Structure formats: C-alpha cells, structure tokens
C-alpha cells in the first residue's frame, strides 16, 4: 500500500497509508491536521483511482509544491517530495512498514514481551532517569540481536543509541528526570535501521557542531574540549563512527541516526 511520510517541523515522522482519500489542512476535521498559520483550513487532498494517486490543491491561500515546483493538481510518483507550509511529505509506493507501536514507560508498560523485541517500528517514551534509560538500552540490545548484521555492527549500533539517549539526558535535559525522551526504532530488514531520539530541551546549533566535529580526530576533539575547560561533546564523534548518517532537526533537539544494512 502506498503511503505519505509526513515530517512536521521539530516532530517525529508520521507514516500515513493511502487507502482512500486524505484531506490536509488546519481544521480539525482533516485527516492530517497541520497547525500552521500559512495553511488553509482545507488546504489539499490526496486520493486515488484505479491506476494513480493524485494530489489536489483545494483553493488554498498559499499553494502546494512538489519537488520544488508549485502545482494545483498532479498524479504522484514514487519519491515525490510535497511541501505544504512547514510540513514536508514524501510519497512512497514501497510496502508500508508495520504500524508504530508505542511503549510508554511512564505508564509502566510491559517492556519484556516478545512482540516488543521483534517489532520493527516502535516508539519508546520514558523519563530522563538512569533507570528508564537503562531499561530502554537493554531492550535495544535484545532487539539488535534479531537483525541481520555482524556482531561488530550490532555493538556499534548499540553504542550509537547509548550516546544519543545519553546526550538527550545530559545536554538536552541537564539531568532533569521529569523531562521525557522519545526514542523511535525503525528497522527496514535488508535495507536500513533508523534511530530517532528527541528530547524536550532547547536544542543547539547542530549544523556547525557536526561539521566541526567531522573535521577533527577524536584526540583533537578531546584536546579542544579540555583546553576550553568544557566537558562532553565526544558523543557526536562516537556516533559518526557507528552509523552511516546523522541528521539533526532545525531546533537541534532531535537526532536521526541511519545505518545501511548490506
């Protein structure tokens, strides 16, 4: 089944299957509600016939764009990138990943079931406490044992998750245990594995930091931090060694780690 991968600024991606008609707009009556002043109450719709899936502008004030070009009506093609206000949507004809399963540690969820260990699409929500973080990392370690990867790759992936969640606790939340971390685990067997970690902190200038850390060796980065009388900062270097791609959102409070599986 085809789908829309919806990315709203500073939030997680939502995957929405296209099995009928999808309306998009600011009003609560829409299937996709985008709280953005630049978006009309009924902005656009996606629908399908026997052969194609179409995107149509519903006389919106500010229009819609596909791959950077403004359109009013067009049949969608695999990989099309749709921009509506601050939301970016990617149209995919690939088989849809299983629905996201949410495990909320704040509600004392059962986190040891076989279903959670084997699920490919799962969102963990937990307090920024050592206890909750330890539990999540232990579950991730078990989940990584189920993927088709070398032992070295599994170890590196586990290390990357530990660093990303640890950075959220230390830098994003300043060890405030009442703040919540969200960790999204996405496994596309035979293709890639994606980890998304989001904290409730103020973020940072991730673009400059990642670019700078990429240029330095680990020893050079450590020396620079020491000479400044600062601490931390090596997490980015570690993660860059463990995965193929690192991306931060605009605010800097969400990191996406991607590892391509051969």
TrEMBL record:
Chain ranges of the FHA domain: 22-71
Entry-linked InterPro entries: Cell_Proc_Reg/RNA_Proc, FHA_dom, HATPase_C_sf, HATPase_dom, SMAD_FHA_dom_sf
SMART domains, alphabetized: FHA
PANTHER family, alphabetized: NUCLEAR INHIBITOR OF PROTEIN PHOSPHATASE-1
Protein name (Swiss-Prot/TrEMBL): FHA domain-containing protein
Organism: Uabimicrobium amorphum
Record lineage: Bacteria, Pseudomonadati, Planctomycetota, Candidatus Uabimicrobiia, Candidatus Uabimicrobiales
């Amino acid at each position: 089944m085809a789908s829309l991968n919806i990315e709203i600024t500073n939030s997680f991606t939502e995957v929405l299957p296209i099995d009928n008609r999808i309306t998009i707009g600011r009003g609560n009556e829409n299937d996709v509600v985008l709280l953005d002043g630049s978006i009309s109450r009924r902005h656009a719709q996606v629908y399908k016939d026997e052969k194609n899936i179409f995107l149509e502008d519903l006389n919106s004030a500010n229009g819609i764009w596909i791959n950077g070009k403004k359109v009013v009506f067009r049949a969608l093609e695999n990989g099309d990138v749709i921009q509506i206000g601050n939301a970016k949507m990617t149209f995919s004809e690939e088989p849809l990943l299983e629905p996201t399963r949410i495990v909320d540690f704040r509600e004392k969820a059962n986190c040891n079931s076989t279903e959670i260990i084997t699920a490919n699409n799962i969102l963990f929500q937990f307090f920024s406490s050592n206890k909750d973080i330890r539990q999540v990392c232990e579950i991730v370690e078990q989940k990584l044992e189920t993927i088709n990867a070398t032992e070295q790759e599994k170890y590196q992936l586990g290390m990357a998750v530990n660093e990303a969640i640890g950075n959220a606790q230390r830098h994003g939340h300043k060890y405030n245990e009442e703040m919540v971390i969200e960790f999204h685990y996405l496994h596309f067997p035979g293709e890639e594995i994606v980890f998304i970690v989001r904290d409730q902190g103020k973020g940072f200038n991730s673009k400059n930091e990642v670019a700078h850390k990429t240029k330095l060796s680990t020893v050079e980065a450590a020396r620079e931090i020491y000479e400044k009388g600062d601490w931390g900062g090596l997490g980015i270097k570690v993660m860059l060694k463990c995965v193929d791609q690192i991306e931060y959102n605009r605010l800097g409070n969400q990191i996406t780690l991607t590892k391509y599986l051969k």
